């Protein structure tokens, strides 16, 4: 049978729209034809009638121009009046011919035109040309006689009358055409309404046909669904659709849905039935029999066996607990191991096996009449917590459907929990019997425990009393804890105040350092220049005065450095730089630095260094040297006669204390400085290590000094991981012993080292050894600044000094001028830039950092950036040496950096390097 052609809803709607569109298109064509006809007639009326009236008016105008020109010429005699006459005489005939041709379809009007033409020609021949000729001949008498009769006037009146009659006829003709046009327009309007009504009726008919074809089919589907709904769960009914469109697809899909729902209902009903049948079963064998019977009844299976897992020494063994349609117990094997046979493999892989091609050797299903070969085998494992606890095998005379297989699979999903519950209940029943026997034993033991319980109750009463006492103590401890918390807050507040005080102290020390070093710079430079006495104008006494001033200035600088060092030490954040130090050079350094002091005081200097002292140790050499120099300075200071002995040795292992052994070090060194001086009373041994304290602390003292040296030495020793001990007797001398570890593996475990004051960074130059000795009361020998090998290095060099302090400018200008240099000065960065822009190039700039208006940092940046002078040497000078100030100066554009007060040797050395380079 041929397949019925599909005619969908979409196709029906599209065809309906197409029919409507075709009707509209035909109506549009008819309407457009009628409108075109009206347009042509309207255009004819507009173009023809307007042209007729226009040509008529133009002929009248030409005639009027001829009459006007004639009369003007006759009256004035001027030839210019003949121009419009002649022009109109040549033009009116052209317009007449055009008008005559335009009226070729109207003979009556053409006949009237011919009469008008005759009248015009008669006027020209009778009145126009003769009068003009008489005027030209200047025949006034005949002209006068002519105008007394004036025959031309009669011609003109006739012509106007003829034109009026002509226009009236044309006007009536135009009105007739307009009336005909209105009638046609009315007919078109009526036809348009009729056509619109026709298209509307066609559209409604098509819509009704399409909607009925759709709605009727949907009603059939709806009625069928309502009948199924009203049947209270009976889903046997199906939807029948005759049309071959989307409604049919809806019916087919609905039928498929009903079949699926029917299968789901069957599946859920059987699952619920199977689950309710397990309730109340207390043994596994009965549960297995009930399950096989129920599943066989639901699926039509004819044969089955149920195996449950039991543990033995060989592994997991599955034992048959029940069978369906068993014949003398031969329904399958009695047991199998996991992985043994198809059923064992299904248990091993935890998956369901379905076999439809059953071999001939498979066990037959027995009936009363004979044995039958099964057609399908279904093996399914039962899982509990992802472990196989049972396996079920079913055989059927028909192939199990997908729905029947799904039924068994869903029943099995929860059946594992049921089997496990039954097994647990059997185990609980067994344990219950055992527990009953044990209960009797426990009852006898409980009587014994009752006696012990009474004893324990007495002990618990004692414990309760103890607990109450502990609670009281706990409350006391909590109260003390609150008090400690309040004390902690007070301490934190005081710590904050101390931090603020430390910050204020830092700012004060930084500003004071700048204020002291600025004038001190001028004092040291000028006193050194006076001490040199290059011009030989000073007497020996005056040179000695200059030396004393220079020495006092250096002592003052050392005092400033000591005060700042002490401030940093007190904060516990002094910078410690560990590096290798050559101990083999230490005796020579001591000899070189203090031999002249010993000679001056006539005291013997002895240096003893043991052989076991390592050549290299790891420590902060600068702090170590400062400790040794301060100890030796004090020894010479308080020794009038006798000797000062320095002993350097390694601390033997047997002398190491427990605290010394805890330090991670290569070795411990012992540096002892012994003198034969005045000695120190025992009660003041601790006092002298405090800041600004001395053994002789009275206002009038024999020995000078600030009392800072030993305090700084003690703190430095602690920072380096060691300490200083004192052994002294009044009148016999003193021995200061420095114990110090070699810190090859880093600092010892004390508070993290850092700067105490973030703003202050004191620069201690390694110029002369005497400058490092803080408490020496002997004159310091003057140091002659060494001249460069090539004396012409400074000659005629242009140097710009930028500083806001006139004292520093005077001192530097005087010192540099003696070297043959040309000196220019500026008081701030702005003046510096102006001079560099408006004067000859400079060979070198000495730039102060702290200046008003524009400081040295900004000035150097503008010199390098705006002026593009990247190779010009700039040496930064400052009295307020800030932390990391050297790096900041170099980043701003400085070539080198020197802190005030200046050492002329150092200044000349740095200038020489940059001028030569």
Describe what you observe in this structure:
With 917 residues, this protein is an alpha/beta fold. It is 58% helix and 13% strand. The chain has 19 helices and 20 strands. It has helices at residues 9-76, 82-102, 107-137, 140-149, 151-230, 246-277, 284-299, 341-349, 402-532, 540-571, 586-601, 621-637, 658-661, 709-719, 806-817, 829-838, 856-865, 885-892, 904-916, and strands spanning 303-312, 315-324, 335-337, 353-355, 365-366, 371-372, 376-384, 387-396, 579-582, 604-609, 616-619, 643-650, 668-675, 723-729, 733-741, 798-802, 822-826, 844-848, 874-878, 896-899. The strands form five sheets. Strands 3-2-1-8-7-4 form a six-stranded antiparallel beta sheet, with helices on both faces. Residues 695-705 and 750-790 have low confidence and may be disordered.
